[in-house]
Write a structure and sequence with these properties.
single chain, about 200 residues, Rossmann fold, 7 strands, about 35% helix, globular, binds S-adenosylmethionine
């Protein structure tokens, strides 16, 4: 049973997210953004944002200390188009302002949860893909990269089998080694495109 304390924490997080997101999406006009889920210390998105100054970039991570370090990088880079927020991915999606549309989603080296009984904790699952599709801009791209081969195959299968996504043979929009990538002996990538008729 959910305790009152837990419910109050979630309520506070929702309110905090609404407060943080409102200035990024002012007014009713649709605004596309590039979203990195599980951005860690923000290495990838900081360099991505510098290379794409016209794109609004938002990185989120569950862990506060990672967001503190990511924000230091953002400040050093003076990247006005870049924002890092402490948030859980599904909660973030549910609090997005109406004008916000996901143009690109980056999921780089997500926690693999290798044990079968923990697969339910993986972020790349059909319900998450549906939730992203519901807030995606036409032509949205989903970029997935992992060093855990079974997750790569299962993620590819989930994307290929989802009615709103199709796997495409495209390169990543930008290359920059992440912290977990640097530790990985090998890794693989999968790119998917939102099917027409989205949003
Ligand atoms: C294995 S690390 C990878 C970090 C970074 N992308 C990299 O490649 O170095 C996975 C990150 O995802 C974050 N994370 C896990 N589940 C999340 C969720 N549901 N929402 C937001 N962040 C999440 C973790 O806190 C962690 O920082």
């Amino acid at each position: 049973m959910l305790t009152e304390k837990y419910l109050n924490i979630i309520k506070d997080r929702r309110e905090g997210l609404r407060r943080d997101l409102a200035p990024l999406f002012p007014g009713p006009a649709a605004r596309d953004f590039t979203w990195e889920v599980g951005c860690g210390h923000g290495h990838y998105l900081t360099d991505y944002a510098a290379a794409h100054p016209g794109e609004l970039c938002v990185g989120i991570d569950l862990l506060a200390d990672r967001i503190v370090r990511a924000n230091r990088k953002r400040d050093r880079a003076r990247a006005a188009n870049l924002h890092f927020l402490q948030a859980e991915a599904r909660l973030f999606l549910s609090e997005l302002p109406a004008a916000a549309r996901i143009g690109r989603l980056l999921l780089l080296f997500p926690d693999p949860w290798p044990k079968a009984r923990h697969h339910k904790h993986r972020i790349l699952q059909a319900d998450f893909l549906s939730a992203v599709a519901g807030r995606a801009a036409p032509g949205c791209r989903f970029y997935f990269r992992t060093d855990f081969a079974p997750y790569l195959e299962e993620g590819r299968t989930a994307l290929a089998g989802h009615p709103r996504w199709e796997v495409v043979d495209e390169p990543f929009p930008f290359e920059r080694e992440t912290v977990f990538q640097a530790r990985a002996p090998t890794f693989g990538s999968c790119v998917a495109r939102l099917r027409d008729g989205g949003h």
